[in-house]
């Protein structure tokens, strides 16, 4: 903190200090005037803090009144500012507290305050922080002044933003409702009146209206609560209650709406003066009508809503429903109406209830010019929420961080990409793995839903307002569907507003509305209509402070002009006021208007024109800025406008203020750290529309293009601004003509399309890719291949994702036709495969993949023969047999792209092949495994391994090896980067491999986890595969059906929502099987229920040939028919099941078929023919062999099945002894392995066996076991069937099947009653003992619930306890379960009947229902109806009459389960249980407190040691034990503590004396500290500092001593080291001086070496270019010489003969032909050459010249294709081809000679330049050198780098040679030229100039590159500074250039700007 010492001022005292500033009282020395000095605390204040001081000083300069504190100066002080003001006195708050004030005093002060406020408002300043601390009073004179204008504003109106109450501007206790940002109001001068009202309330009563430590509660009070009137308070004034008149004045000031407060300070003052006058005259104040003189000449249209009360209430009601804890689903309300109708204003009315409910309210607005930006409004809304959370306390923020990380998991980066601000909360997140497009889409949906869930809770309901949905993109509409369809977002309220007239029947929003309606989402619609006449009249009356009837004529005219549109109405009235048609008459003190004048006033007839007229009143520059802003969107930033307008940001801020004052735009942020307001928004769509309309249509595209280019050029974060930039560029795409720019824009569109695709915004992505394709040139496939391929492939993929399959095929055909390689085409083929799969065209998917795989060397036969399958499996086995399965995990990764493509495509084919050609699977998978072993593991190899294991187990029968491959696959997915394959591997592993080695139930938990993991990674197919496998395994592993029912139902709903049709069919079959077991029907083997209806769905399955579905369907029908004694044709079901068994190869269905198929055959056996019996027995034998084999590997799954089949076979064959043995064995094993379903079945079959044998008693015993087991399983249909089948054995009224054994006895009824009583007493005693013997809450709950379940006849029980006023489920148990689940305090939710719970809570009565579904007052409870509850009991737990919880019990098997005796017992137990639970809770709290204390002590980094009053060690924390080397040693006497813990005097071997021991001194009542002790432990000495304090009990006796000590080894070492340093410092200084001298000499030598090294490096840069420059002419010489030799060898001898055969005329023609050829230079393109050839051929053919084609080819090669008539005689000779060939060769000879000459000259130049460059004058003397020659030498050597894209502009003035070191100057030119070329990327203009500059030569080397960044420029001549990547530059180049120039007594300068950089070297012309 600064201590103020300011020259010219004497500081007297510090008055106060806040976080930001300190206020001093002082005296100005020049005139001894008392002053107040306010200074910032920070030594380095931020710019915004300084700016606020400057602004406060500027505002104070506006006042010339005694009512405002005078500013005397603003003075710089060190790094900060001091604001110097007059010393007024003390604050009003202090005066109220310290001085006895009379009512008259208070009135006088209040009147002065009004005077001050009036003066402030008179200069159009709003104070914004009026409170009793900011009104200062001179105690001597009583004069009052306003002070502290730090928050004041000169705006006439502000629009506060909603933010955390803890960071609101102003003093929260005094803040106005509109200042909170939570009112549908802007802020104007009347905000100060509310704050003044709070101040007056305090002035007259001594307290403020609202007091709370909770900031949000205070805000809610200000906006929604009415304070108690002053006259009703206990406060008194002058011994009397506060007068009613004063109370009314203050209450009027405290009105929530500004329109209902006073409208002027003078009106307040007038009423207060009347009160003062009455008090003076009468000694009292009588009531009077206040506000009579409250007139304001300010024109204010009220901000309240007119005619919207019904709609407001509708919104409020919906929000209240969403906010209630028992709300079951998210809601959406759509508000429709024309623009300006008041949709946004209506929504803002929710601020109050949202604040009251502590909810969150966020808004987003879609923009008409940014429709392509995915999720724009949704993202904007959640950015607000994230920013709000960042203002929370650290504790709250930590909670949000944990919630978000838990919800988002490993996919958090997806949301961070959309909302970058989120990273500030959760920290940097790992990148998410790349997935297939459809999986990426699913993953995004999954993560987005989980993100939304975080914020939707009853504690913080979330409201999202999305405005202008008519402009919403399709991705945003889908996001709305996701949010609303998620049942976990119950406390979400979405409000969508749109212009209904712009949403037609085909608008995407209509589709969304229909989808939401189909999904049952609660939807409300509010349509806003125009205002009616009486409503407009009331609005005008309130505006003009008049009567509604009086203004009715004006209202009629307004309605006629505006149509009743509220926005138009307000703009119309403002325009009338501005034009003077409505004006305030100061004489009449009222507003006046003239209807005739108004009717004659020219005002636009529509709102856009009217708004446009108003905009034209603004300054021209402001209008231009608003035009640009309109192109940017509804909101914009000054920084962006500065870029696109090329104006300073400060100027733009100033220009926009006029637009703010006019109401066209509003600020949406506060001053930033530079003192700027940077963020603005248009106040209405119509304003933006008008601003945009003011741009001439022909200029709009150019403006968008200019904005796009500017943003692109200057953006630092392309990713964040990508869509905005691309949208602007695309708007003006037709104006882009430069090919290079078109390609770059096309690439930008590709990036935008990819980003939109990643965000599931497919419509936007399609648009971007289409524009990118449009921008490509006609030869793009040749010139821009990579970009073209990228755009076509991406466009094809997004067409598939959007479901546009025709467009996909069109694009795919182009790629397949134009792509250069197969690998380039593969991506499109993969997309086509996925498209076919998505449409269910699996055969087509295989058909397109087969030839593709064949090209990649991976052959798949169409229908493999058994021999082919066997060959593949054998080959595969040979690959791994020698090396072992586990070693495959260590294979290297697969690298070859073709092999990786094969693996990907093969994986894509697995599902289609599995469904349509399952016999092909072994071939597919075997070859994948072979490929992986041969070429390394691909990421998808894990899937091949698990499928191979599936085949080994299911087809080959190699269960052990198959299981090893399954384990290999599981280990492959262990690394975190393989988590995306979890569902793909876990699904098949548990479906077909683990069933052969592990208990079926053991698969359930991993399958559930894999399902979740699959959803996280968007792998919906395999996630839902895990779900349907879970359903199947749960159904047949004995899981209770009622529990399983809810789980499968949840899976079905989720799979349906995920639109996974295939897996939904499978799950539906399993669910319907369960429902048939649970719900009795006449045909239980038929599927005609809610989950699956075979009549409607089977045909479709047959049509698609889904063999797995058909197999599952028939096997489950077979199972139901067998179990429930169906009268269907079992033989037909057997045949159908067997037919489709290949569709379920290796899965549980096959094993179920052999089990239930065998049982079915044995059931059919008795009625079969002899031949049929033989067939049955053979099939049963085969099944027995399989079951027995499977039982060897997994006896827990199959042993009991095997024994049951064997028992049944023995039964039908009459082998009774064997049957008895195997039945019992089957029952025993089924029970042992918890197969409740098959334990029941084995008992039932045994009962039938004994019944058939005539052993009825034994049969009844087995039947009773079966009956109970079926009941426990929940198979009610089976239970009812047994009741019908055995009515004599089972009492259907009670559901009791007597457990009859050999020693059955019968008792009388009275004995039975006594037995029940005895049993109840025993139960009561047992429960009492359990209750009294257990104090641990969890164990108590378990014991209590066990006893209740065992003896109450309940199936399920719950213990519900009261915690913090809320009832929470603490424990749940089932009678048949082994464990009681103690839950983590779950809310009731929909787990239990809410109406029953509420009744018991309120009445404290026990509820018992014998059949809750059909009788009593609770039959309509949703829970009771859903679960069909029969017997139900709910009893209160009362502790001394207070409710502590509830017991809830159910029995759904039988009605009347809870008898009166049981109820009586439970009531006895409940009171003891309540007391025990209370005691256990108290004990739990004590334990928690104790644990917390221990945790604190263990966490602190100081040793803590506690001893008892007797000195015996009691506790030592972890750090204490580390220092002492041991823990607590019991029974140590106090005088032996030093000895036991080895405490010595520091530096000695003497034990530390007891009289100085701090522990012993503390036990005597002394607090002591020492630092001269040390602990000796295990050869180590630890010096310590220790202190100890006594601890007293309530009687003042010492009960403990607590010591704290720490290791001070480092401190001791530091002290010793400091002493040693002092001793050796002089010696070190001397040695260091010598070292520095040596280093300096070494550096000087190194410098020269570096210069020479850099020169060699520069030379090295030229080597490649020089080599090319020499090789090129040498190549030309070699080629030309070869051509000459070839000609001379072939044609020289023919020349004489040819010439002899020619006539003189023909000889002349020959020579002319040769001459023409030598003059021609062939520059034709290939297309032009073909055209010329065709023309020549036609011309020669017309003259009937033979060999026309050959002649035409040769002539074109010679460059002769026009005017050939003179040569026709020569061409007509028979040997003309030979003659023309000879002419062609002769001309070639001449051209080769010319080429050799040119090449020789070129090589000579290069060699000369290299010699010139390389020469080195070792004399060290300067030489006269021509500068132009020196530079040209370097340019010659750079010719190769220059010639292809650089234009060299030379401007050499003739100068005499200058004295220099030429080799060093060559190095200068080389460095500068090289840097220039690199800066331009070898494309652009290189400027070289030499000129005279006085007595100096000025050499300029410039480039047209991007320029040098401003922040880099000062560093470029620094040694080792480089902007190049590591390894590409030493950073010495320009440093050495600078040194060389300085060595020549010259200097070097640089000029740079975007597009140009010039280095100027100045060298003396004469030697210095």
TrEMBL record:
Residues 1489-1525 form the PAS domain. InterPro entries: AAA_16, GAF, GAF-like_dom_sf, HATPase_C_sf, HATPase_dom, His_kinase_dom, HisK_dim/P_dom, HisK_dim/P_sf. It catalyses: ATP + protein L-histidine = ADP + protein N-phospho-L-histidine. It is an enzyme of class 2 (transferase). One of its GO terms (molecular function) is ATP binding. Residues 9-289 form the Protein kinase domain. Its EC number is 2.7.13.3. The keyword Electron transport does not apply. Residues 1568-1620 form the PAC domain. Keywords: Coiled coil, Kinase, Phosphoprotein, Transferase, Two-component regulatory system. Residues 1611-1638 form a coiled coil. It comes from the Bacteria. NCBIfam families: sensory_box. This is histidine kinase. It comes from Oxynema aestuarii AP17. The lineage of its organism: Bacteria, Bacillati, Cyanobacteriota, Cyanophyceae, Oscillatoriophycideae.
